[in-house]
Amino acid sequence: MSTARRPTSSPIAALGVLLVAVALGVLAARHRSARPPVAAIELAPEPEETREAGPLDLNVADADALQALPRIGPALARRIVEDREVNGPFASVEDLDRVRGIGPATIERLRALVRVGDPTSSPE
């Protein structure tokens, strides 16, 4: 019959495990505190020309001019121009709701910044 001896745990081994755990905890704490703080996102101010020129005419503005409006990026500006080309000029600011991606909240946000002029007028 073989007598297998159970390894005895030594206080030195237990102390080693404890030291490794503490070292890992210190490293983790340093890593968390070493990360740079997250900067706040700053929104760019509206371009000067948009504010001074008055409301932008939806029936003559090109995609670049439409991108000067808040929350109107290249894709949405392109859809506004394409909708105007396919469905004809906008009769009112509310007609923007026919453009995919523009809803009531966006229309209200843009109401003071856009207008609907004569579709035969020349771009400003």
TrEMBL record:
Superkingdom to which the source organism belongs: Bacteria
SMART domains attached to this UniProt entry: HhH1 (SM00278)
One Pfam assignment: HHH_3
Keywords: Receptor
GO biological process, one term: DNA repair
One GO CC term on file: type II protein secretion system complex
MF (Gene Ontology): DNA binding
Keyword Acyltransferase listed: no
Domain Helix-hairpin-helix DNA-binding motif class: 64-83, 94-113
PANTHER family: ENDONUCLEASE/EXONUCLEASE/PHOSPHATASE FAMILY DOMAIN-CONTAINING PROTEIN 1, ENDONUCLEASE_EXONUCLEASE_PHOSPHATASE FAMILY DOMAIN-CONTAINING PROTEIN 1
Protein name as annotated: Late competence protein ComEA, DNA receptor
